[in-house]
Amino acid sequence: MLSTSASGTAASSPSRFGSTALLLAAFLGGITSYSIGSLARASPTISSGSRTPTFGTPADFQRAITELRAIFPASRISTNPDVLHAHGFSLNTYHPGAPHSVVISVESTEEVSGIVKVASKWRMPITAYSGGTSLEGGFAAHPRGGICVDLSGMDKIIKINEADSDLVCQAGARWDDINETLRDKGVPLFFPLDPAPGATIGGMIATGCSGTNAVRYGTAKAEWFLNVTVVLPSGEVIKTRRRARKSSAGFDTTKLFIGAEGTLGIVTEATIRLAPLLPTNVAVAQFPDVRKATEAVGEILNKGVPIQCIELCDDVFMHATNNYGISTRKYPERDSLFFKFQGSPESIAESARVVDEIVRAHGGSGLELAKSEKEAVDLWADRKAAHFSGLALVPGSRGWGTDVCVPVSRLPDLVYETKKDLEESGLVSTIVGHVGDGNFHSLILFKTDEELEAVRGAVHRMVERAIRLDGTCTGEHGVGIGKKEYLYEELGTGTVELMKLIKRTIDPLGIFNPGKVVAHPARLELECLQSSNTPDICSFIQMTLQHSLMVESIPEG
Ligand SMILES: Cc1cc2nc3c(=O)[nH]c(=O)nc-3n(C[C@H](O)[C@H](O)[C@H](O)COP(=O)(O)OP(=O)(O)OC[C@H]3O[C@@H](n4cnc5c(N)ncnc54)[C@H](O)[C@@H]3O)c2cc1C
Fold first, then answer.
1. What pTM value is reported for the model?
2. Coiled-coil regions in this chain (predicted)?
3. What is the pLDDT of residues 245-286, one digit of tens each?
């Protein structure tokens, strides 16, 4: 079987795969008309992973744990099987999980740095864990085990700079706690990125998250993080920049860690930007179908109406909400849009008038604006309860939640084709989407292993469909283990190889969250080649790559 090793790469001699890749690059370079998608675009200066990380032996790992036990009090270091399991598996994912060898609860940047130095000495994988809400297997241990650094206790707000609309906090601070603290202190500001309740600033940075507010405030990849303090794989601590609102001083190294999922560094502190807390109100409208709803969204966005959120909920979701939602309200069971407007009451009334006109022009039912604060809270709570209302549709079922994202105008095709596919597969699923961004989530239900396999197939086809529609395999959940096989197809070899080059440079031992985000090149290049339309050249390259993989053993990854 071919290895699925991560990026990683650090031992002492170049592998045969590396030399083969160079030979192939030279071969491909001579074929001017040749175009097999991403492989042909690979830069010759960014070569495929040429070194394989060699982790320490089980005895080395035991030595590392002994050293760590000498540093940490017994209450903060654990090899209890239940604790190891809880930090390596998630009820929210169905990707292969694995228990860590040891879990350490940290309290400071210095402690994280100390652990990294031990991990590096014994070449032991090291994975950060914060809120534990991520959905793509990001915090699962490496199959060989490793150290899990639990940052959930580093949850302090260090300083609120109200005059500058920013806040300095530790990486384990949860976004919902931050907003509650600001509210309790009477500070009229909030942090607008809103993934799962309980998600932390460190995990949100690592996954490049967003949520319902992204239509107004953008994602983690916008400028919500002014700086981050990071422990690098060398154990060195860096702070990426100061607190000024903007800076054009060199590369944007803060962004390097956004979406890196702990593969380049462990974030221990951050300065986050805050937004003014404005009055909001909520409304709902029904449409004949998703296409009409999405067309209305495009027009509303282009009118510049001050909208904080636009959420699409399909008819199945509305049915689930009628039965299991938080409020007692009964909704028409049709494809619907939920809106959150912001501004003064007069401005909201004007926004609602404009949106109502557009909704009706697209065959919609007309907009129902909440008439009281309680009604607004109830409406939004029903939307936010999507996960649990969906699960309740099939008692005793489990749900596979996943996301993809396409340009807004392509969303109807994606939703239509996906719903048809799910129906044909006999699977029950609800669909909700941050439709203002073209971001689409489905929660697909299953009870048996057979159904789980059917779900896995449906998710794969959904991702392929999104990429075909010029979209992405993940709009906000990140890559983890679950989406890494799609990166070559989506981003192209040159871009993925650039990521690997950065990974190799920063983490030469390959110990930071190995096996996540970037996959081993060989297997994916084979897959990429299989789907190309140049069979002769492909079979030559396949043969060569397969040969190189057969003669080389790649134990880790
Ligand atoms: C019901 C539900 C709803 C959700 N809704 C949304 C949504 O609307 N939008 C959205 O974007 N996501 C959503 N998510 C996914 C999840 O909330 C996000 O991915 C979130 O950003 C994860 O943060 P966390 O603190 O839980 O990270 P974790 O799950 O602890 O970790 C995530 C990844 O980051 C790494 N990591 C953790 N901490 C650090 C650190 N300090 N430094 C470096 N690496 C680190 C981990 O190793 C792992 O790879 C939802 C999940 C659930 C269960």
1. 0.86
2. none
3. 999 999 999 999 999 999 999 999 999 999 999 999 999 999
Tens digit of each residue's pLDDT (9 = 90 or more) over 366-421: 899 999 999 999 999 999 888 889 999 999 999 999 899 999 999 989 988 998 99
**Ligand 1 neighbours by CB, cut-off 6 Å:** 92, 127-135, 138-139, 151, 171, 195-196, 199-200, 202-204, 206-207, 209-211, 261-262, 266-267, 387, 476-478, 513, 516
Provide the 10 A C-beta neighbour count for residue 425: 15
Q: Which helix (H) or strand (E) holds 402?
A: strand 398-405
**Which residues 6+ apart lie within 8 Å of 551 measured at CB?**
16
3-class DSSP assignment, residue 370: coil
The length of the chain in residues reads: 557
> Strand, coil or helix: what is 343?
coil
Q: How far apart are the CA of 150 and the centre of ligand 1, in A?
A: 13
Cα–Cα distance, 91 to 133 (Å, whole number)? 9
Atom of ligand 1 nearest to the CA of 257: 43
Across 1-5, 82-86, 203-207, 497-501, least confident range: 1-5
Query: How many beta carbons lie within 10 A of that of residue 218, not counting itself?
Result: 15
C-alpha–C-alpha distance, residues 139 and 118, integer Å? 20
Q: How remote is the CA of residue 205 from the centroid of ligand 1, in Å?
A: 8
Sign of torsion, CA 442 175 206 511? negative
Stretch (H or E) spanning 255: helix 253-256
Nearest to 187 by CA among 308, 269, 281, 274: 274
> What does the pLDDT average to over 64-72?
98
Token code pair at residue 342 = 């912001």
- Tell me how far the alpha carbon of residue 272 lies from the centroid of ligand 1, in angstroms: 17
For 421-465, the DSSP string reads HHHHTT--EEEEEEGGGTEEEEEEEE-SHHHHHHHHHHHHHHHHH
Average pLDDT, the chain: 85
Q: Read off φ and ψ for residue 355, nearest 5 degrees.
A: -65, -40
Strand partners, 444: 400, 429
pLDDT tens per residue across span 296-335: 999 999 998 989 999 999 999 999 999 988 888 999 999 9
Domains of the chain, earliest start first:
16-49+500-551 (no CATH), 58-150 (3.30.43.10), 157-276 (3.30.465.10), 280-388 (3.30.70.3450), 396-468 (3.30.70.2740)
- Which residue lies with its CA nearest to atom 18 of ligand 1? 134
